[in-house]
């Protein structure tokens, strides 16, 4: 009975798929975080440029 339990590999595939899904989630989350940071920098730069132009007195 113990030998049969040790040799049973039916759950291994599910664990492998779970690990692959977790790794894919981490990659996507990291990519989204990087894009969000770059977008924030871009909008901050645009905002600063607009404030600089609008604060000038003619």
Structure description:
- InterPro entries: Flp_Fap (IPR007047).
- Keywords: Membrane, Transmembrane, Transmembrane helix.
- This is Flp family type IVb pilin.
- The protein is mainly α and 58 residues long.
- It is built from 2 helices and no strands.
- It is rod-shaped and about 90 Å long.
- The termini are far apart.
Pattern of helices and strands = HH
Structural class: mainly alpha
Rg from alpha-carbon coordinates: 26 Å
| Shape designation | rod-shaped
Q: What is the helix content?
A: over 70%
β-strand amount: under 5%
The low-confidence runs, each spanning 5 or more residues with pLDDT under 50, are none
Count, helices: 2
Q: Tell me the number of strands.
A: 0
Q: Summarize the main sheet.
A: none
Distance between the termini: 90 Å
- What is the average per-residue confidence, as pLDDT, rounded to a whole number? 88
List strands and helices in order, with pairings.
Blueprint: H1 2-7, H2 10-55
Summary tags:
58 residues
Report a brief summary of the structure.
It comes from Asticcacaulis machinosus. The chain is mainly alpha-helical and 58 residues long.
């Amino acid at each position: 009975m113990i030998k049969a339990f040790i040799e049973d590999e039916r759950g291994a595939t599910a664990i492998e798929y779970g690990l692959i899904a977790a790794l894919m989630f981490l990659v996507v989350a990291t990519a989204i975080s990087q894009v969000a940071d770059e977008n924030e920098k871009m909008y901050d730069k645009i905002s600063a440029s607009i404030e600089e132009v609008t604060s000038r007195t003619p």
